[in-house]
Amino acid sequence: MSPPGREVQYTESAVIEVFKNRDDYAEPMTAKEIADRLGCSRRTALNKLHDLETGTDVTSKKVGGRSRVWWIPVRTD
Q: Does residue 51 sit in helix, strand or coil?
């Protein structure tokens, strides 16, 4: 019997890859969209996004009462 707990680890780099492997690199995404692409819960994706926002270029914006979108700014210089 395997020990209790999660067997799959979702890394911050996996979340970054979701942003990079899209047709429109600049389009913001919701935590739900990222979770669907990773195959994890929305809460797991949201936790990773919050971690990334404090340590990387990932940024977010509130777009409604409880909605937030996430993206990596596109540099033009």
A: helix
Fold (CATH) for 12-71: Arc Repressor Mutant, subunit A (1.10.10)
User: Is 0.90 surpassed by the pTM of this model?
Assistant: no
Task: Give residue-wise pLDDT tens across range 22-75.
Answer: 888 889 999 999 999 999 999 999 999 999 999 899 999 999 888 999 999 887
CA atoms of 52 and 56, how far apart (whole Å): 5
28 close to 61: Cβ distance less than 8 angstroms: yes
Run of H or E residues at 34: helix 31-38
What's the per-residue H, E or C state across 11-33?
CHHHHHHHHHCCCCCCCCECHHH
